Amino acid sequence: GAGVSQSPSNKVTEKGKDVELRCDPISGHTALYWYRQSLGQGLEFLIYFQGNSAPDKSGLPSDRFSAERTGGSVSTLTIQRTQQEDSAVYLCASSPEGVRTGELFFGEGSRLTVL
Amino acid sequence: ILNVEQSPQSLHVQEGDSTNFTCSFPSSNFYALHWYRWETAKSPEALFVMTLNGDEKKKGRISATLNTKEGYSYLYIKGSQPEDSATYLCAFNTGTASKLTFGTGTRLQVTL
After folding, report:
1. Chain A interface test: which of B9, B57, B99, B101 (most A C-beta within 10 Å)
2. Which residues are CB-contacts of A75 (< 8 A; sequence separation ≥ 6)?
3. Does A2 contact B at CB distance below 8 Å?
4. Distance between CA atoms of A63 and A66, rounded to whole angstroms?
5. Among A18, A33, A102, A109, which residue has the least CB neighbours within 10 Å?
């Protein structure tokens, strides 16, 4: 399909393990965002990529979180040494140029459960 | 810290009822206000992107208004249907940031 694709859709892991979440944005979209929604909370901004510019990492909650975007397309969010409070739905979204010019197109999310 | 507040937190209406939700946001440094609908097990989907004070947008039975001077937006659903059941999110963007700040959403349930 032509939408934003995320994998895995569900991930259950043990505390202390590392996890990788993948996002394949809509082709041609230069802006890519990661958000997460913890139980009972709103969508929390994590990181933003725009073209070849340095990413806005201001929302990453700790140094255990990192993300990269290779070739301006696919992005991977990595969580090291997972903790129970990392359990959330991680949403990826892309946009032709960013939210200042239009809407976000979201994937269906990756639900992470840390036991 | 930007606070975007939505009310009510949840709402339960019957089919055919009309309803509305509120989104409050900081009135200073406003750039855009987004509304999204998030159905269970699906991805959030954009409803409206609004930028002008006094703007009113409509998509089918759903409409939204925007007051940037006082910092609020209303989302209206006319003649609610079960398929309208979802969480409705509003999000705010300032002129200096490239991210959206989301509210916690209004969860709507429409029953027959």
Report:
1. B99
2. A22, A23, A25, A32, A34, A49, A67, A68, A69, A92
3. no
4. 7
5. A18
Contact (Cβ atoms closer than 8 angstroms) between residue A36 and residue A44? yes
Dig out the tokens for A81 from the structure.
């040494």
Q: Which of B34, B23, B11 is nearest to B110 (CA)?
A: B11
Q: Does residue A56 belong to the interface with chain B, where contact is any CB pair within 8 Å?
A: yes
What confidence tens digit (pLDDT) does each residue in B63-104 have?
A: 999 999 999 999 999 999 999 999 999 999 887 777 889 999
Closest alpha carbon to B94 in A45, A110, A87, A18: A45
Q: What is the pLDDT of residues B42-69, one digit of tens each?
A: 999 999 999 999 999 999 999 999 999 9
CA atoms of B68 and A92, how far apart (whole Å): 28
Task: Flag whether residue B28 sits within 8 Å of chain A, measured between CB atoms.
Answer: no
Strand, coil or helix: A85: helix
Closest chain A residue to B94 measured between Cα atoms?
A: A100
Count of other CB atoms within 10 angstroms of residue A91:
26
